[in-house]
Design brief:
mainly beta, eight-stranded antiparallel β-barrel, 3 helices, 60% strand
Length: 192
């Protein structure tokens, strides 16, 4: 009888201990890594009243199914000039929040805040200024497949500290509305 009682005691302890979950810094606050995404960005924006292409890429980690934190790289294709090529690029961190992300179609809101470069590139000169860019956006996200999402976004690019070294180009000349189509490839796992 003692053997059965002792055996039942060890089985009960094992079951109770295995039911305990280790607490971590992220699980204690309710923040859980639930996915990873990356892909191309294709946007249109205005430069001197002309629509030009803005392209780039993103990589992001997803938390709690609806918050993505990542890195974005972008380049704006300025019209060519007779004196050289204009280079306007920026990259940095971004946040995106998608309430009801489990739905096939849901809203998406975010902000990119990054450093960048603006300047004229010629054969003899590679003069560029450091600038700052902030791009708030809002739009719609589609869960196409479990491994693919598509975002249609619109927003405004604010450029700061351009300087006056490039024929009077100012912050307002580089600040403009944009519309973007992002394809994100990756996977979500777990639950909220």
């Amino acid at each position: 009888m003692k053997k059965y009682t002792l055996s039942l005691f060890f089985i009960a302890c094992t079951l109770l201990l295995s039911a305990q979950k280790d607490e971590t810094l992220f699980s204690a606050t309710g923040i859980r890594l639930t996915g990873a995404w990356g892909g191309p960005v294709l946007a249109g924006t205005l430069v001197d009243g002309n629509i030009v292409r803005q392209s780039g890429s993103i990589f992001a980690l997803e938390f709690n199914k609806n918050l993505t934190v990542g890195w974005s790289s972008n380049s704006v294709d300025f019209p060519s000039t007779t004196s050289g090529r204009v280079d306007f690029s920026f990259n940095g961190p971004f946040l995106n929040y998608a309430p009801a992300a489990q739905k096939a179609v849901h809203p998406s809101f975010g902000m990119l805040a990054s450093g960048g470069r603006f300047g004229l590139v010629t054969q003899n000169n590679n003069q560029k200024n450091d600038i700052w860019v902030a791009q708030p956006h809002a739009g719609v996200e589609f869960n196409v497949f479990r491994w693919m999402k598509v975002q249609i976004l619109g927003g405004y690019r604010f450029a700061f500290f351009v300087g006056d070294e490039f024929d009077g180009v100012s912050d307002s000349d580089l600040s403009a509305p944009f519309a973007a189509l992002n394809a994100k490839f990756g996977f979500s796992w777990g639950t909220r």
